[in-house]
Design goal:
Blueprint (H helix, E strand, L loop, with lengths): L7 H12 L4 E2 L5 E12 L11 E6 L2 E7 L8 E6 L4 E7 L11 E8 L2 E6 L3 E6 L4 E6 L29 E3 L2 E5 L18 E5 L5 E3 L17 E2 L4 E5 L4 E5 L4 E5 L6 E4 L13 E2 L4 H9 L3 E8 L4 E7 L19 E6 L5 E7 L5 E7 L4 E4 L12 E11 L2
Antiparallel strand pairs: 1-24, 2-27, 3-4, 4-5, 5-6, 7-8, 8-9, 9-10, 11-12, 12-13, 13-14, 15-20, 16-17, 17-18, 18-19, 21-22, 22-23, 23-24, 25-26, 26-27
């Protein structure tokens, strides 16, 4: 791993300015997000700072952070960080081969301190203990033996990740996971028959689809192998309701029974109204990515149980600089965070600079909303450390 090399005096000055750069706020808001303390964890040489599955949880009143290490840039494992002591509390190995081998690992979610759900880019997800032993394997879908292609007619793969916030929803022994790419192409009227979530009984392994269907926001017909929608959404669970945020729609949708939807306006003030658009699946990947980043869109939706509010991230259009590939991180993209109260009313929106925070890496903790400082354009960026700044809600007077 490498650190930025700058003269000490210059580094000290720039680091202070950048690491403590304040976001912009609108003073007619009821609340603003205000930056405070910095949380730092040291990483060893086998840990890659850019985790795609980072979740906060509590055990016996203490606060921990579950961090699933990247399988391609480090040793596959889940690290449990002690937030108060800012150190590694436990390491859970994840095996790729052998009797406890898990193929195509992507996503890890803590059921408790000793049990973890591991999701994959394969047909299964797994329940493992804190020694990495597989306790249960549940198959989501099956291969078509005839043409060797995956069948997505009934279920599709789903991962619990924080790269786009998709946490596990666990009610007793029933585990819910989202469904976004089942049975394409579609006509506009088809969406009302497609379930947004499926669920699995962890005791029996049986699966079924919820009655909660996609909202009627997709107005054009999809064309197989040519034009399609990205129906992805982030979601947050309060313990009683699930709130869902589509990447290309201003309203959020809420359900209290996994059957019915209610819509609430949650539009960012910083860009015009957005609606889902068809994309050309045959377009060159790099060209397509460039075009996608030029569109305003929404991202995470978090629920803060400690303050009973929601945070919805809104990403500003971003042009990759000349010489930089859109396959890299968009470390320069500005974003804002919309705050909604428990009645899903907007009570504030704070805008953040693009050269300071890594918006994909964040979590809600006891003290506030933690945004990662591991932005490659941030002078205090260090691959050997996980760094977060804690933001708290401040009432505007």
């Amino acid at each position: 791993m490498k650190n930025n090399c700058l003269p000490l005096a210059f580094l000290t000055l720039v680091t202070f300015v950048s690491c403590h750069q304040n976001p912009s706020v609108a003073f007619d808001d009821q609340v603003s997000l205000v930056g405070g303390d910095t949380l730092v964890f040291s990483l060893d040489d086998s840990t890659y700072y850019n985790s795609k599955a980072i979740f906060q949880f509590e055990d016996h009143g203490k606060e921990y952070l579950s961090f699933q290490n990247d399988r391609e840039r480090g040793k596959p494992r889940t690290l449990i960080f002690d937030v108060e002591n800012r150190s590694v509390f436990k390491t859970v190995p994840l095996y790729e081969e052998g009797p406890n081998g898990i193929p195509a690992i992507f996503g890890s979610w803590p059921v408790d301190m000793n049990h973890f759900i591991v999701t994959t880019y394969s047909t299964c997800f797994y329940l493992v203990d804190d020694k990495g032993n597989i306790q249960k394997k549940i198959q989501l879908w099956h291969w078509d033996r005839k043409d060797k292609k995956a069948l997505f007619k009934d279920y599709c793969l789903s991962t619990f990740s924080s790269y786009y916030s998709s946490p596990a929803i666990l009610q007793d022994s029933i585990l819910y996971f989202k469904q976004t790419k089942v049975g394409y192409p579609h006509k506009p009227e088809d969406w009302k028959n497609i379930s947004m979530f499926a669920y699995a009984n962890l005791n029996t392994g049986k699966m079924a689809k919820t009655e909660l269907k996609f909202p009627s926001i997709f107005s054009e017909e999809e064309i197989m192998r040519n034009k399609s929608y990205d129906p992805s959404f982030s979601y947050a669970y309060t313990g009683e309701e699930v709130a869902m945020s589509f990447y290309q729609y201003d309203s959020i949708f809420v359900s209290s029974d996994f059957k019915h939807l209610r819509a609430y306006n949650a539009k960012s003030r910083y860009f015009p109204s957005v609606r889902p658009q068809l994309y050309n699946a045959y377009k060159d990947l790099l060209v397509w990515l460039q075009e996608e980043y030029l569109k305003p869109r929404y991202h995470h939706l978090f629920y803060d149980k400690y303050r009973d509010v929601f945070y919805r991230f809104a990403l500003q259009p971003y042009q990759f600089p000349k010489g930089r590939s859109p396959m890299e991180e968009a470390s320069g993209q500005e974003f804002s965070i919309i705050v909604l109260n428990n009645k899903y009313e907007i009570i504030g929106e704070t805008r953040f600079p693009g050269n300071t925070y890594h918006y994909r890496m964040c979590f809600v903790g006891k003290k506030g909303l933690y945004l990662s400082l591991n932005n490659q354009q941030n002078p205090c960026f260090d691959e050997d450390k996980l760094m977060f700044r804690c933001f708290t809600l401040q009432e505007n007077k």
